[in-house]
Amino acid sequence: MPIWFKSQMQKAFLEKDRYQIKLLNQCWFYYRKKHCSP
Fold first, then answer.
1. Contact (Cβ atoms closer than 8 angstroms) between residue 13 and residue 21
2. What is the pTM of this model?
3. How far is Cα 30 from Cα 37, in angstroms, rounded to an integer?
4. Contact 12, 3 (CB under 8 A)
5. Which DSSP string corresponds to 14-28?
6. What 3-state class would DSSP assign to 33?
7. pLDDT value at position 20?
8. Which helix H or strand E contains 7, and what residues bound it?
9. How far apart are alpha carbons 2 and 7 in whole angstroms?
């Protein structure tokens, strides 16, 4: 997981920003699907 992504996640959790957390989750799953699938 990229460092910038981790910091964004931590910030969102600290601020209890549900919208941001959902958005980051969707981005992460999309990223993994694109880059980690064979």
1. yes
2. 0.62
3. 11
4. no
5. HTT-HHHHHHHHHHH
6. helix
7. 92
8. helix 3-14
9. 9
Place of tokens 């980051």: 24
Asked if residues 5 and 28 have their Cβ atoms less than 8 Å apart, the reply is yes
pLDDT of the chain along its 38 residues, tens only?
A: 778 888 888 999 899 989 998 998 998 888 888 877 66
14 is written with which tokens?
């600290």
Residue entry with tokens 């981790």? 6
Question: 């964004």: which residue's tokens?
Answer: 8
Instruction: Determine the distance from the C-alpha atom of residue 4 to the mean position of all C-alpha atoms in its chain, rounded to a whole number.
Output: 10
* Contact of 9 with 21, CB cutoff 8 Å: yes
